[in-house]
Amino acid sequence: MKIASRAAAAALAALLATACSANTAGTASAPATAAGAPGKDSPAVGFIFVGPKDDFGYNQAAYQGSQAVAKALPDVRVLTAENVPEDDNAARVMNSMIAKGAKIIFATSYGHLDAALKVAAEHPDVAVVQQGNLITGAVPKNSGTYFGTVYEPVYLAGIAAGKATKSDKLGYVYAFPINQTITNIDAFQLGAASVNPDVKTYVVGTSSWCDPAKQAEAAANLLKQGVDVVTQHQDCTATIVKATEAAGMYTVGYHADASSLAPKGWLTGSQWDWDALFTDIVKTTRAGRFTAGKYNANFRIGFKTGTNPFVQAPFGPAVDETAKAEIGKAKEWLSSAAGSPFAGPVTDQDGIVRIPKGTVPDYAAIEKIDYFVEGVVGKLP
């Protein structure tokens, strides 16, 4: 993928405030490791992940993006650390990477934000970018966030689910009731309802990004209710995909392509392709092309603004040509000025119109949605 427009490339400037140098390939669960041609004095970039690099999900996709940086910029050491908790340990690991020469840090989990801002404040010569959150108010000028508009491909996957279901019951296993997961659940339901007005989405929360035992229990709960398509917003996805496949039901993936785990029931899904964006962030930072305060610190890229790093996963055998064509048309619509999963009217569970007819909310407004839409079964805690 490539950033599709000069405007999108320029907007990346919001992420960072200082020119830094940075890459070698590396893997690790310890604070940082490096392997490859560059020596210990070569410029470095650090990546921290909240889970393992082979989770068939969020962390695997981010790790693959880090390795794309290593491949594209062979003079730079890429330092990686797996299983970094969302607490003060994250700051410790990032500081360890900085001590090893890292001038750019990617904090890739939602809960890494506080630690990322702390490290940025302590190291004004290091660019610290965080994946998926929003920063507001007075923050270090060398910090920023980046993400794709995840709910757009999720809406498209909802169309596949709405066409495939026989029971009109879809299941959604989510981690935490943050805005990001809420908008994904809503977009999935809205996409499904656009082709199947009778469909409903049943939700179960796990209060964990990756707890296989809770995931198995959640999947079993949904399947007992007659759900025949299951999707999720979890970091590690294998447990739910395998459980759904074993039950003979359909799966919609998330974060990474897990179609190999569900050869019969896989429909499609959404997956990260961070390669171009990660590499561009490092290149532009090293070149000194970021200006403090010139752009908003929260960079987002979607179907309307460039090449969304959150892309549609491959189709499975149960998705027919008619469904593929409908999804293709919907993607074109989402890329237009009038298109959005949340184009009004949008009504919540209580029948209140939250987005009036004729209104197309922008990306910033969508990220603040804090309610379930009509058709979602289950309450926010």
UniProtKB/TrEMBL annotation:
<feature type="signal peptide">
    <location>
        <begin position="1"/>
        <end position="24"/>
    </location>
</feature>
<dbReference type="InterPro" id="IPR028082">
    <property type="entry name" value="Peripla_BP_I"/>
</dbReference>
<protein>
    <submittedName>
        <fullName>BMP family ABC transporter substrate-binding protein</fullName>
    </submittedName>
</protein>
<keyword id="KW-0732">Signal</keyword>
<dbReference type="Pfam" id="PF02608">
    <property type="entry name" value="Bmp"/>
</dbReference>
<feature type="domain" description="ABC transporter substrate-binding protein PnrA-like">
    <location>
        <begin position="45"/>
        <end position="294"/>
    </location>
</feature>
<dbReference type="InterPro" id="IPR003760">
    <property type="entry name" value="PnrA-like"/>
</dbReference>
<dbReference type="InterPro" id="IPR052910">
    <property type="entry name" value="ABC-Purine-Binding"/>
</dbReference>
